[in-house]
Specification:
With 258 residues, the protein is of the alpha/beta class. The chain folds into two domains: 8-183, Rossmann fold, CATH 3.40.50.150; 189-257, Helicase, Ruva Protein, domain 3. Helices cover 36% and strands 19% of the residues. The protein is built from ten helices and nine strands. A seven-stranded mixed sheet has the order 4-3-2-5-6-9-7, sandwiched between helices. Strand 3 (52-57), helix 3 (63-69) and strand 4 (76-80) form a beta-alpha-beta unit. The termini are far apart.
Amino acid sequence: MPRWSQVFLFDRTAINRIASAIPISGKTVLEIGAGEGVLTAALAKNAGARGKVVALEIDRSLSGKMEKRLHGVKNVEVNFVDAVKFDFGGFKIIFGNLPYHLSSKILFKIIDSNFSRAVVCLQKEFAERLVAKPGGREYSRLSVAAQNACDVKILFEIPRFCFVPIPRVDSAVVLLEAKPSKGRLRLNQALVAALFQHKNQSIRKALMHSRKALGVDKKILLSLCESMPLREKRARHLSLDDFAALSEWFESSILANR
Ligand code: SAH
């Protein structure tokens, strides 16, 4: 994997399809991982004079190429910062051909921010995990967190040869649309993470294995085992509602007894 996951888009059609995935005219857009600024320029054009692109890039050595590409473009602000440490708080619209080694971290950061729509280019396998349904091989903690917070859709795929250098994997562009907070279920993320660590075991067994990570006493767990919902099911088969029921039980009985 190249340093900082630098695989730059050069296919014009792909760049324009990403930049036009949702209407952004007159809007402020946050772009994560601007690279040499190809997507930045397309976004700036679509945002128009009354809109703006705030671009983040960690690698200062790209500033020369970026300046050249964005020469004369007035509605772009480039920040050479680590996106992981940057506050996404004020941004409603987020774009990015994300650095693949940070996809998960940045995705969780987007989900936890106050965004409304995000268009992100991701490794195809990662995109498939985001949209995976219960029972599928790709179903993961990420699927649960993303689908609880957002409507998630794969818009289109981008083959590897649209990038330089050519990566070993294909990509997919995903649209995330935040659900209103009342449309989200209360999930205990630590519990969900622990259950997916043992996703092929029954919930009862998975919880026993994870009790240290969750800071739960064995005796308490055993004594409350009878009331545990879905205890013979496996995490890989649980729906969002199932996770919410388990989270509720976990917090009201187990954590309350700790
Ligand atoms: N948007 C560009 C580049 C995508 S490659 C294009 O489509 O061509 C991903 C970019 O993210 C790289 O330029 C890489 O330097 C940058 N990047 C990697 N880690 C980062 C981080 N922590 N914060 C901000 N940018 C980062």
